[in-house]
Design goal:
Elements lengths: L4 E2 L2 E2 L8 E3 L19 E6 L3 H13 L2 E6 L2 H11 L3 E4 L8 H10 L8 E5 L3 H10 L3 E4 L4 H20 L24
Parallel strand pairs: 3-8, 4-5, 4-6, 6-7, 7-8
Antiparallel strand pairs: 1-2
Amino acid sequence: MIRNWFAGEEGVVRPQGVEVAKTRTRGPGRTYSRVVPGVSGRVLVVDDNKVIRQLIKVNLELEGFEVVTANDGAECLDVVHRVCPDAITLDVVMPRLDGFGAAAQLRADPRTRDVPVAIVSACTQQEVEAGIAAGVDAFLAKPFEPTELVRVVRRLIERKDRSDRGDRSDHNDGRKGTPAGRGRGGPLQ
């Protein structure tokens, strides 16, 4: 189970389906679990900082993901239909269109409304609240551990795959009419 962190508190309850993961950078040592042969899924990585974009890309590629990058939310929306990603990571503060605006537009488009979206940012309380309102599925606070990034992305894609196959066990928490995802599903585990 992924530990949920927010403002230094472990185990803070979030709306079902929304994950907030915050990790502390550890000392030197192995940061990748293994190189996975084949492709685990396609991820669209959106960040205006070239170094962060490359860091996310390399870590996901080492775990077998195919990665496409975009510089900001506007470019994300330009390429998302050509790329057809299995998941999207978004920074919050970007030129032209920020991560919340991009997430809201992705949710408004029938072709992308079900693509899992993770915010990779400072994850302040305001960012989490705005992200939930925009339909974000998960949050990963910077600085992050590469293994945590991979775990969050992998779980989002697995959840999407179960949904695509029609496995409804993930889609209702027992409350009538409350589907998972978009701030209402179960925590990623």
